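Format notes (please read before filing issues)

Several people have asked whether sequences and structure tokens are stored in separate files. They are not. Every record keeps both together, in the order shown below: the sequence lines, then the token lines. Line labels are part of the format and must not be stripped during preprocessing.
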Amino acid sequence: MFQRIVVGYDGSAGARVALRMAFEMAAADHAALTIVAVEEHLPHYGPVVGELEEERSVGELDCRGWLTVALAEAGKRGIAASADLRAGHAAQALATAATEHDADLLILGRSGHSAIWGRFIGSTAEKAARHARCSVLIANQEQPGEHADDHTTG
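Then the structure lines:
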């Protein structure tokens, strides 16, 4: 059904559920899978050049770690996957990645915002869904029979 799937991954509980769904769908459809991590935690104040580079370096290391874990899990499952590390606002970067990879499905995990906060600002997943040019699947953070404190991807 889907030929090219992009999944956003940041190591969070919602992202782990999204990644598992992406693995299942990619395996079932023999689809190309791209796992995208977005480094967006830059200082919200006027940093000096050294501080900005340090923040980028820390954020990039986190993203590379998430991608390494996700690719290893894909390999264990026999799923060929590629990684894409991006910088910027997560919602925009994920929608852009889906377009650039010519994805026909973008899979994202729902964040842990409270209902009031989520309605006020919207979640990254909801914002990305509004801008994506393909179908979007937003995975709930916890699936039946799972627990939010389960930190495995398998």
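For reference, the curators noted about this record: The two ends are 23 Å apart (CA to CA). The helical segments are 13-29, 49-76, 90-100, 115-121, 124-131.
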